[in-house]
Design a protein that fits this description.
With about 350 residues, this protein is of the alpha/beta class. Helix content is about 30%, strand content about 25%. The chain has helices at about 10-25, 45, 50-55, 65-75, 85-95, 95-100, 120-125, 160-165, 215-220, 260-265, 305-310, 340-350, and strands at about 10, 35, 60, 80-85, 105-110, 130-135, 140-145, 170, 175-180, 195-200, 210, 225-235, 240-245, 250, 255, 270-280, 285-295, 320-325. The strands form five sheets. It has a seven-stranded mixed β-sheet with strand order 3-2-4-5-6-7-8, sandwiched between helices. The chain has a four-stranded antiparallel β-sheet with strand order 9-10-12-13. Strands 16-17-18 form a three-stranded mixed β-sheet, sandwiched between helices. Strand 6 (about 130-135) and strand 7 (about 140-145) form a beta hairpin. Helix 1 packs across helix 3, helix 5 crosses helix 7 and helix 7 packs across helix 8 (about 160-165). The two termini are about 30 Å apart.
């Protein structure tokens, strides 16, 4: 439970605009067939209950998120579109061949949640999914930004194309604006891909405010923009790339470490199924990266192997000082519960001191 839970107050205008925005941004033809791997209770299913009604489409529902059930539903019902968090696509990527069957149908997939590892987007594409990264939060009715693919990206090598597709992109068609601002001056950061600011939205696809919490509402809309709390850069082509949540940045010896960057490297290890990185208190450095790693079924790896793998791909101070193996706690929507992991890391630090 959050120490300061907030109720997001939505309005009909934002809901119908984002429902239509999803259709337009995805280029959904009429009578699309949509597979519900995304829970309807999560951000109102990203407004897709209304989007599919407007589309006169077909809803295919599941009783459980299971790789074989999903593949069977795609083939049986002619699914054209689906949404999900990275964990859902990882489930499909890592499914045994007997669960996949003989698939020939291509499916358009929205992916959101935490910034998806490039390995997830690449794996989904190899499986036949045409992945589009979307971004948003409950305060924006789910995704209100989209990494709109450019035609010239198709000719790029896979690694570079995946890197481009993993960004948070630009504002959705019916959201007025999304950009990266300096939260202190409220001025846009340079589009240099290096200067870090905060992702902010404004327009009709933003909440009315927080229920019975005027102070939190005023803070959220300071300067006339909705503050997301996500730290990001603006790249030269105008697309946004998230670096980290402000609360997830690890400050070690005065150096800022992006947990997302470390997680992305960890996900490239062939034995890693899921990884999460949090700050662990440290007497010498203040904080150090602590990695929680869930291995692939039947895979093995040691802490030394994981740390060496990271050391080969990033600066030494970013390498996790501790690697904890085991299942990673997730919410019912597939989000990693970093608050729990922070508590575990803090307890480990206290026990070691």
């Amino acid at each position: 439970m959050s120490p300061d839970p907030k109720g997001v107050v939505t309005h009909h205008r934002g809901a119908y605009l984002n429902a239509l925005s999803q259709i337009v941004s995805w280029g959904m033809p009429a009578h699309s067939v949509y597979l519900w791997t995304l829970p309807m209770f999560h951000c109102n299913g990203w407004c897709f209950p209304w989007a599919m009604a407007a589309n006169a489409g077909t809803n295919v529902c599941l009783r459980r998120v299971d790789a074989k059930v999903i593949f069977d539903a795609i083939d049986e019902h002619g699914v054209t579109h689906m949404c999900g968090a990275p964990i859902v696509y990882n489930l499909l990527i890592n499914a045994p061949s007997e669960a996949r069957g003989e698939r020939v149908r291509k499916v358009s997939g929205f992916i959101a949640g935490a910034a998806p590892p490039t390995s997830t987007i690449e794996g989904a594409e190899r499986l036949g999914f045409e992945i589009t990264h979307v971004y948003g939060l409950t305060e924006t009715y789910g995704p209100a930004a989209i990494c709109a693919a450019q035609e010239e990206w198709r000719s790029l090598p896979m690694a570079e194309r995946v890197r481009m597709n993993a960004r948070q992109g630009v504002a959705g068609p019916m959201q007025e604006e999304m950009t990266v601002l300096d939260p202190g001056t409220m001025l846009p950061v340079p589009a240099d891909g290096e200067t870090v600011g905060e992702v902010m939205f404004r327009g009709n696809i933003t909440m009315s405010g927080y229920l019975k919490n005027p102070t939190a509402t005023e803070e959220a809309f300071a300067g006339g923009w909705l503050h997301t709390g996500d730290l990001a850069v603006l790249e030269p082509d105008g697309y946004v790339r998230i670096k980290d949540r402000s609360k997830d940045v690890i400050i070690s010896g005065g150096e800022n470490i992006s947990s997302i960057e470390v997680e992305d490297v960890l996900h490239r290890h062939p034995a890693v199924d899921l990884a999460a990185v949090v700050a662990r208190p440290d007497a010498k450095w203040g904080e150090v990266p602590c990695a929680f790693v869930q291995l692939q079924p039947y895979a093995t790896a040691t802490e030394a192997e994981i740390r060496q793998f990271c050391r080969e791909q990033m600066a030494g101070y970013k390498v996790p000082k501790i690697v904890v193996f085991g299942p990673i706690p997730k919410t019912s929507t597939g989000k990693i519960q970093k608050r729990i992991l922070r508590d575990v890391a803090k307890s480990m630090s206290e026990a070691a001191s």
